[in-house]
Amino acid sequence: KYEHDDKGDKGEKGEKGDNNRMNVMTHLTVYHLPGRWGLPSVSPFCLKLDAFLRIAGIAHEAITAATPFGGPKGKAPWITLDGETLGDSSLIIEHLKTVYSVDPDRHLSRTARGTAVTIERLIEENLYWAMVFDRWCRPVGPIGPRRQDGSSGTG
Fold it and tell me: Which three-class secondary structure state does DSSP give residue 94?
């Protein structure tokens, strides 16, 4: 586990935007799946939440969970925020935008926001399943033939 503070590269006061999240007294814990291949997590949804937290400068404690089943929806990521547990990366991000009064997309036009949502849906609802098929269903995976037990032989 590690602590991430919202000071980032902006100095002692954490001046990353004009919102009031610095005044919010909360304890945010983020649960995600372990990483591989140089990534902090193997889950694209965990990576999405992690990117949002870094961009928004939200301080949090990150905990690596062995399985996704500890979350309220049986999948990762999930958070606890002052005792409340919430799952699903999109719902978590919308909730955190409200709690911390932060919106990294506030500068986007209505058209640009629509385009961003379209790309997000494309990736999450379509391309994600191609990745799942490639990783778990193809007889020859991206790193070689699969074993009889379905694993790729890389551990």
Answer: helix
pLDDT value of residue 134: 77
**Which tokens is 38 given?**
């140089």
Quick: pLDDT tens for 89-132: 999 999 999 999 999 999 999 999 999 999 999 888 888 888 77
Give the torsion sign (CA, 16, 17, 23, 25). negative
Give dist(CA 131, CA 150) in Å, integer. 16
Whether the CB-CB separation of 119 and 127 falls below 8 Å is answered with: no
Contact yes or no for 34/90 (Cβ under 8 A): no
Q: What whole-number distance in Å separates Cα of residue 63 and Cα of residue 108?
A: 32
pLDDT class of 13 with cuts at 50, 70, 90: very low
Cα–Cα distance, 26 to 37 (Å, whole number): 32
Say how far apart CA 71 and CA 80 lie, in whole Å.
10
**Can you tell me the distance from the alpha carbon of 117 to that of 125, in angstroms, rounded to the nearest whole number?**
12
What pLDDT does residue 147 have? 56
